[in-house]
Amino acid sequence: MRNQKKESPVTERDLVDLTSLGDRVNLQDVDQIYLPLVDYLHLFYTKKKELEEKRAHFLQTEQVKIPFIIGISGSVAVGKSTSARLITLMLKRLYPELQAQLITTDGFLYSTAELNRRNLLERKGFPDSYNMNLLYDFLNDVSSGKPDVTYPIYSHNIYDIVPGEYGHVTQPDILIVEGINVLQLPANQELYISDFFDFSLYLDADEDQIEEWYLSRFKRILELAQNDPENYYYKYAHRSMDDAIQMAKDVWQEVNLTNLREYIAPTKPRANLILHKTKHHLIDSVWLRKY
């Protein structure tokens, strides 16, 4: 992908800081996979900006700053958040003149109270548990060049939307949107969420491997929640470990695996790039869609 070798902008300490619970990433993957990928993304960004300038000149209109939007999707526990944070960090360090921002679609989940009202709490994570129309409107505002677009904030500590707290997207050069639902079709809409993206990635792995990572992450979450009564998982951390793990296995089978098979994996063909992971979260295959 690259014409010349670049020095990695990331250190081992950076990888420790940005890696999600239960995930792994090493400097070899950074050098062999993520560094050429970020160069490739920058190439697409540059070409889009050139086209926007030419279009504005041709139409004799004022050019509006519209972010280059990247979507990152995949199963629960496959490593989306780590990849999204790593790409964001690398963009900032390799291209410091550009403003790169990362958001997740967790904030577009309905609140726990609303999920209860809709009798959807057991389907949290499924498409109907998200306010997909709100996500659609958010992306529409961002891609229209609106100068300040707000979005709800989600806390994994309380496992809910944080009341009254919002993030802001203020026309960054590059916006990365990470979530299990970023390639899906909102109800009553004619456009897929992915239609707003200039480039999209899908993190993939075999189902059994993802389940292993999911259960490993769950154990780590319980360890961290043991001494924090405010944490949603505190009550589970004080059950017997066998009971807690069995509950996690049930949730995987009944919720996450079903969601993966029925709603997440079918969106994979819409991605521009697929990164397939194997044991220890190592990337063993890369599929790039031809244009």
Percent range for β-strand residues: 15-25%
Describe the largest sheet: 6 strands, mixed
- Rg over CA atoms, rounded to whole Å, is 20 Å
Average pLDDT confidence is 93
- Contiguous low-pLDDT stretches (5 residues minimum) are none
In N-to-C order, the SSE pattern is HHEHEHHEEEEHHHEE
Shape: globular
Count every helix, treating DSSP H or I runs of 4 or more residues as helices. Answer: 8
**What strand line-up does the widest sheet have?**
2-5-1-6-7-8
C-alpha end-to-end distance: 15 Å
Tell me how many strands there are: 8
Short description:
This protein has helices spanning 12-18, 27-59, 80-94, 112-117, 132-143, 207-225, 234-237, 241-264; strands at 68-74, 100-104, 149-155, 160-169, 174-178, 199-204, 273-277, 283-288. The protein has 291 residues and is of the alpha/beta class. The longest helix is centred in the first third of the chain and has 33 residues, at 27-59.
Tell me what the structure shows.
41% of the residues lie in helices and 18% in strands. It has helices at residues 12-18, 27-59, 80-94, 112-117, 132-143, 207-225, 234-237, 241-264; strands spanning 68-74, 100-104, 149-155, 160-169, 174-178, 199-204, 273-277, 283-288. Helix 2 packs across helix 3 (80-94) and helix 6 (207-225) crosses helix 8. The mean pLDDT is 93. Strand 7 and strand 8 form a beta hairpin. It is of the alpha/beta class and 291 residues long.
